[in-house]
Design goal:
Layout (H helix, E strand, L loop, with lengths): L3 E7 L2 E7 L3 H14 L19 H8 L1 E9 H11 L2 H17 L11 E7 L8 H18 L5 E6 L4 E3 L3 E2 L8 E2 L2 E2 L1 H17 L6
Antiparallel strand pairs: 1-2, 3-4, 3-5, 5-6, 6-7, 8-9
Helix pairs in contact: 2-5, 3-4
Length: 208
């Protein structure tokens, strides 16, 4: 458990199962490994990206939306609303205005040190209106994706468990694998990676 990693490569997609090892270390290892294997001067002309060029709206349509997390500073939320006039920023603005009223701060004297965090998800206890709620949260997620600006901070979690942020898409899954010495059982890791690749492919997350 000092750190290990298993890589599952299919076409130009790389699925990673790691323990206490960062992506940068894996990239460096591959550079050195390919150099020692004498694969040629172009063997290190590659990189590993967390933010693949995926169609976020297509992912939302395919996988559906589980929840939306919105984060903003109090006055940043207000300013964005005035600039954009979208429903999403309007919600943040209302909460920001409420906090402003509670703390009694004037804008010119405020240092943007308060953060607004909103989590929006369907209430599964209300089965009667669940379908309507799912449609509304999906529409809201699409609005967030289509209208975000560089200062926006949000995370959309799909029903498949994948996470979409303003400038990144995280395709992740937590898997418990039996230990073996200081590492884990190899075959279990390969099986988990293979199943993970199949699941995100089926969900349409690998389509570019």
């Amino acid at each position: 458990m000092d750190g290990d990693a298993f890589l599952y490569v299919k076409d130009d997609h790389v699925c990673l199962c790691s323990t206490s090892l960062r992506d940068g270390a894996i990239r460096l290892f591959l550079y050195e490994f390919f150099a020692k294997a004498k694969l040629g001067k172009h063997a290190n002309k590659f990189d590993l990206f967390k933010n693949p060029k995926l169609d976020k709206l297509k992912m939302l349509n395919t996988q559906g939306v589980k929840e939306i997390e919105l984060r903003a500073t109090v006055f940043q939320a207000t300013a964005q609303y005035e600039k954009r006039k979208t429903k999403t920023s309007g919600l943040l603005r209302k909460i920001a205005s409420h906090i402003q009223a509670v703390v009694g701060a004037e804008k010119e004297d405020f240092d943007d040190s308060l953060r607004v965090e909103v989590i929006i998800k369907t209430d599964e206890r209300s089965r009667k209106h669940l379908t309507l709620g799912e449609k509304r949260i999906e529409d809201m997620a699409k609005d967030v994706v289509k209208n975000f600006e560089k200062d926006d901070d949000f995370t959309i979690v799909t029903n498949s468990g994948q996470k979409i942020k303003a400038d990144e898409i995280f395709l992740t899954e937590t898997v418990l694998i039996d230990g073996h010495g200081k590492s884990i059982k190899v075959q279990k890791a390969w099986d988990a990676l293979s199943e993970f690749h199949k699941s995100i492919k089926k969900a349409g997350a690998l389509e570019t």
